[in-house]
Specification:
Blueprint: H1 2-25, H2 36-39, H3 47-74
Length: 75
Amino acid sequence: MKVILYLLGWLLVAQGVGGVVNTLLGWWRWARDLLLVNILPFLHGREIFAAIVIGVLGLVLLSASASMGKTESQT
């Protein structure tokens, strides 16, 4: 479970950072179809906020996976 949370956390962090950079700067035209904020139609017009939320959720998952490792090693 720890590995799944860790990988999903990094995936969401990468999606969040990529979404923020692409929304603000528009550098990655080739990655437009790879970013979650551009795929979901109900996020149109709110891409920057959604990318920030996705990145924060990724950080939460990373901290949850780190805390799971600490509790498993203590028992």
